Amino acid sequence: MIKKIIQFILLVAFTPIFCIALLFLLISPIMAVSEIIAIIQHEAPKENVYFIFLIMISLTLYLSMRVSAFRKIYGKFPVLWPLSQMLFISLTGLAFGVFFMNLWAENEIISKPIAIIFMIVSLIVARLFMSYWYRKNPISTKMFI
């Protein structure tokens, strides 16, 4: 009985954190694409906070899968886990894209065409990894039952 009460309290405390992380995960790719476009148009660097977002989101996703009380959310909403995986992998590619664009815009370490090529390659690598990942581990809701 006490264990269930503690699990419920932890679940109530974790739910807002999970919702915020999911919101960041949904909005961050749109923000990253708009920042890449702004870097190209204005030729000025932007802050790359996406690696920090990735660390916070990965910790939240890890806890949501590791703790059985938190994992119940995926049983109720089975689309959340594959969606969060896809968005996380896409955000990783976009974070590297912003990084490469900032290398050009801030310090001119690499030229603009090379930065754009690296950015496109990072997006392609993220998509190829996603294809590989889902070929090896097909999406299934049975893992949450």
UniProtKB/TrEMBL annotation:
The chain crosses the membrane at residues 48-67, 79-101, 113-134. Keywords: Membrane, Transmembrane, Transmembrane helix. This is Uncharacterized protein. It comes from Paenibacillus montanisoli.
